[in-house]
Amino acid sequence: MTGVVNGARVAGDDVAGAKAVAAVPLVVQHVAKSYEVDGRVVPVIGDLSLTLDHSQIVSIVGPSGCGKTTLLNTLCGLLTPDRGRISWYGREIAGQPQNVGYMLQKDLLLPWRTALGNVMLGLEIRGVAASEARDRGHAMLDQLGLHGFAAHYPSTLSGGMRQRVALARTLVNEPAVLLLDEPFAALDFQNKLLIESDTAKLVREGGRSLLLITHDIEEAVSLADRVIVLSKRPTQVKAVYNIALGIERTDMMAARDSRDFSKYVRQIWADLDVVLQ
């Protein structure tokens, strides 16, 4: 079934869900954001509404330059919206929300710290006892396939391993919600699939919620329960897809092999309306 909510085409039972405003992790209502450039106002986000439910993975895709990173920075309190409401667990919050992890495309590991030292950084800042921070850091590195690499420095690790350390650094703080801004974009296909699978497993088994920004439509479909397609600037929600692949959702190859995978990819590609130059 397809309907229209806030001017956007919505696929599946999202028609009813988009109208519900429960105390879910994240509710965004009619948010707008612009920048001033050389004395003129440049609108980036036009009028955007979305929700992120409990234990749900949502992917956001859109044309290059449509404001996806600006949106994420606004949601996590690094930027202030011009208008609209952003509610975390039913409350509007000024500044950065609590219990939310934000991971960027660059790993931003501190070169003078070991893998374990980088993972422990947030715990140290929060005042967690050193022994507990070490134990939690080791456990998270082990979960992400980095057993035996705790004492290695970033310069000795591959790109995929560095990104796993960055993911471990985010997850070790046990955030209820993860905001990821193209964290796997620079990885080769093999490493991308492995880390996508690890991320999906840790998020789903931990009952967390995940909002993922990506340019990769296949990544969006294979990972997410719901894919939100953004328009060109000034950005609005153009379409929403509930992804039903009929398989176990932590296996990225199985997702890509599923019957309806290509259908979703083609539909979203058509929605993006990309013109080859």
From TrEMBL:
The keyword Iron does not apply. One of its GO terms (molecular function) is ATP hydrolysis activity. This is NitT/TauT family transport system ATP-binding protein. Involved in beta-(1-->2)glucan export. Transmembrane domains (TMD) form a pore in the inner membrane and the ATP-binding domain (NBD) is responsible for energy generation. Belongs to the ABC transporter superfamily. The keyword ATP-binding applies. PANTHER family: ALIPHATIC SULFONATES IMPORT ATP-BINDING PROTEIN SSUB (PTHR42788:SF13), TAURINE IMPORT ATP-BINDING PROTEIN-RELATED (PTHR42788). The lineage of its organism: Bacteria, Pseudomonadati, Pseudomonadota, Alphaproteobacteria, Hyphomicrobiales. Keywords: ATP-binding, Nucleotide-binding, Transport. Residues 26-257 form the ABC transporter domain.
